[in-house]
Amino acid sequence: KREKIYIKYIYLNILGSERVSTLQHLTVRRGESLTVPCFYEEKYKSHRKTWCKGGEWIIAAYANTSTTGISVTDHPSQNMFTVDLKNLQDSDSGKYWCAVEIVGAPDVRNYVQLTVSSDPAVWVENSRVIGQEGGGVSVQGFYSSGYENKEKKWCRVKTWSCYPFQDSTVNISDDKNNRSFRVEMIGLQKSDAGWYWFSAGGVGVTVHLTVTERPTSKMILISVIRNIC
Fold first, then answer.
1. Cβ-contact 26, 204 below 8 angstroms
2. Alpha carbon separation from 83 to 36, 68, 120 (Å, rounded)
3. Which of 134, 175, 181, 186 has the CA that lies 20 to 30 A from 110?
4. Where are the alpha helices (DSSP H) in the chain?
5. Would you say residue 112 has pLDDT above 90?
6. Residue 226 domain-assigned?
7. Both 109 and 126 in a single domain?
8. pTM
């Protein structure tokens, strides 16, 4: 059984945190893309979702629409909407908001502080990884100089829980000399699929894990027969 350390109070903004939740501090390399997951309560499934920018809360995009460099998709079955940001530049740095519109009342929201630079505090080799059920997957992360002694975390976004550096199915190693951070997950289950967060010193980047089904004996047999023929 996987041991997790629950640290919800660290990552959630108090304002609206029980209704809309997301990661507060994300970083990305200039010119690259980033996906921000925003979670909401069950009762907001049918409400319109928005992605807003700046202190004046200017609407940048609505759910299930796309504008230049921004695509917002609602996933009602998961009580979540995702914001895909493309070709990010330094000028895109700033405060953003995951928001749910409420008719006749203030909208509920939570903020994300985004930093774009040529040398981000944290980055990963692949932001989307795929593993097979029962198999394993690895994620390679890196961090900038000055973060060697900062606390590193590998967390599940949906449950706001973090894994210890060593347990039966997750192994996390921190190579301070090369400023690299490696996560290895084994014995993958379908329930492991979803969004994760690698962070150093409270600044992080998102990683999405897809878990595919294990091939059945019948599928393997058909493959062998085809190869023989």
1. yes
2. 5, 13, 20
3. 181
4. 8-11, 217-228
5. yes
6. no
7. no
8. 0.80
Cβ 197 vs Cβ 203: under 8 Å: no
99 & 40 share domain: yes
Q: Over the stretch 67-99, which tens digit does the pLDDT of each residue have? A: 888 999 999 999 999 999 999 999 999 999 999
Task: Please list, in sequence order, all residues whose beta carbon lies within 8 angstroms of the beta carbon of residue 202, skipping any fewer than 6 positions away.
Answer: 10, 25, 150, 151
Task: Please give the span between the terminal C-alpha atoms of the chain, in angstroms, as a whole number.
Answer: 44
Collect all residues with Cβ–Cβ distance below 8 Å to 53 and sequence separation of at least 6.
60, 94, 95, 96, 97
The last residue of a domain, from among 89, 117, 145: 117
Q: Are 127 and 88 within 8 A, CB to CB?
A: no
Domain count, the chain: 2
Single residue among 117, 139, 160 that ends a domain in this structure: 117
